[in-house]
Structure to design on (471 residues):
């Protein structure tokens, strides 16, 4: 069997498995509140759930569609099934997969990227599951340490700590490209401070500016070559 | 029996733990398949091991942060449900916001004092429903969407726009966050007052500086092994700075 055929078969198997697991997870996650409600003797209030969905759900639905379209190319087939099941995309799975890809030196859209991305996201998910399981077991003795006011600022700053490190890594790849989206975002957040409450939504225009500029530079390079 | 005691009943641990175990097994299956495929493709095993080690070390610190989220939500929703949500699908900012919005629709605040069993099961349902779309889209469109993407770059080895687009996307993402930290400092306490919190910006700067130092050691001092820990160590130093500054 040649390499292409072998990889095609692997991808077909990944899609079969990924779809099956996604459907099963969905059934379990939506079914669990009803099962728990049955055990505790109080089923969900469907009217309140519907109103809640209109209030909060529509925003997350739109955000999920954008996340799916933007992140799937970074994650590959296996990686995207796992990432959308296990969550924590922006704060962990995406940078984790990008880091692994960088270390392995593989390119987007290749078989090697598919393998590395799947390994990275599956391992990352297992680590989270293990840490949380251990934490839940140790929750009572750990609680005073982890919730101590002294450590609180550290855990409140996980995201800035992550993006500081990622900024160095990615800005140095193309400093000139970084300047414009950073300047535009800074001006926007300075002029409209309330936008800080929806920083994750601002990734979309910021990413669009960076991709647009990168595309123009790439086209210019293609023409000159 | 208080509501919180009911929400921490052993049956709930069993239900949530069972779902988490199922996902853990799925992850192991994906690892085994990908590892075997990598070997069959002739990939360098050292590189694959490096990706695994780096991903594991990278994930420890954010996972501890996520664990704190479980602690934070367990005060109003009990421990098993936040444990499930944050182990498997959610993210703290999402879970907290949706739980709060759901509680608002029920007419209560997200706190143990006001929680009822029915409010809990409604909140739990809404938390599940609001964030299931990524999974549904992946199940429906992944075969076609990934094939389309794969066809654009598979195996040619030529530097196409795909890789540049990913770097650009990341630059855009980082810029949104760094811009928000600068904006928060400059205008967070009133436009151009420079009275907002500078802690996130300071943490990002420390983290970036440590990353720069580690990259320099890796590239100039031939300490390649540091790459496996560079992001985790940079984050840890940034977070430590938050304790010192904050």
């Amino acid at each position: 069997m040649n390499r292409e055929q072998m990889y095609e078969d692997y991808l077909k198997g990944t899609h079969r498995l990924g779809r099956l697991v996604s459907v099963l997870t969905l059934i379990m996650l939506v079914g669990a509140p009803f099962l728990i409600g049955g055990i505790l003797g109080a089923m969900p209030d469907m009217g309140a759930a519907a109103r809640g969905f209109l209030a909060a759900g529509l925003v997350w639905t739109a955000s999920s569609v954008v996340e799916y379209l933007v992140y799937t190319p970074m994650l590959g087939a296996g990686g995207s099934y796992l990432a959308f099941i296990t969550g924590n995309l922006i704060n962990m799975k995406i940078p984790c997969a990008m880091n692994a890809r960088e270390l392995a030196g593989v390119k987007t859209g290749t078989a090697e990227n598919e393998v590395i991305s799947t390994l990275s996201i599956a391992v990352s998910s297992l680590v989270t599951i293990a840490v949380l399981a251990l934490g839940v077991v140790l929750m009572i003795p750990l609680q005073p340490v982890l919730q101590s006011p002294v450590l609180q600022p550290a855990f409140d700053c996980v995201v800035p700590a992550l993006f500081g490190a990622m900024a160095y890594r990615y800005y140095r790849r193309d400093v000139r490209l970084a300047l414009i989206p950073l300047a535009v975002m800074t001006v926007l957040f300075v002029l409209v401070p309330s936008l800080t409450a929806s920083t994750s939504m601002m990734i979309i225009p910021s990413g669009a500016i960076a991709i647009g500029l990168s595309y123009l530079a790439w086209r210019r390079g293609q023409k000159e070559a | 029996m208080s509501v919180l005691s009911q929400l921490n009943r052993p049956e709930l641990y069993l239900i949530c733990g069972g779902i988490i175990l199922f996902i853990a097994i799925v992850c192991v299956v994906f690892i085994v398949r990908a590892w075997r495929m990598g070997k069959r493709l002739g990939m360098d095993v050292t590189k694959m091991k490096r990706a695994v080690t780096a991903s594991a070390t990278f994930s420890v610190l954010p996972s501890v942060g996520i664990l704190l989220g479980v602690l934070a939500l367990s005060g109003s929703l009990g421990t098993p449900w936040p444990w499930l949500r944050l182990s498997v699908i959610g993210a703290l900012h999402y879970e907290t916001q949706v739980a709060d919005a759901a509680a608002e629709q029920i007419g209560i605040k997200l706190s143990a004092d006001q929680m009822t069993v029915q409010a809990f099961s409604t909140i739990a349902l809404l938390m599940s429903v609001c964030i299931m779309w990524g999974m549904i889209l992946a199940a429906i469109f992944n075969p076609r969407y990934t094939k389309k993407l794969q066809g654009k770059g598979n195996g040619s080895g030529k530097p196409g726009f795909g890789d540049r687009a990913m770097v650009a996307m990341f630059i855009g993402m980082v810029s949104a966050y760094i811009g928000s930290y600068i904006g928060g400092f400059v205008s967070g306490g009133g436009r151009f007052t420079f009275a907002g919190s500078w802690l996130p910006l300071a943490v990002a700067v420390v983290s970036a500086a440590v990353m720069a130092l580690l990259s320099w050691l890796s590239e100039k001092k031939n300490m390649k092994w540091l790459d496996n820990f560079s992001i985790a160590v940079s984050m840890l130093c940034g977070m430590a700075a938050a304790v010192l500054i904050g």
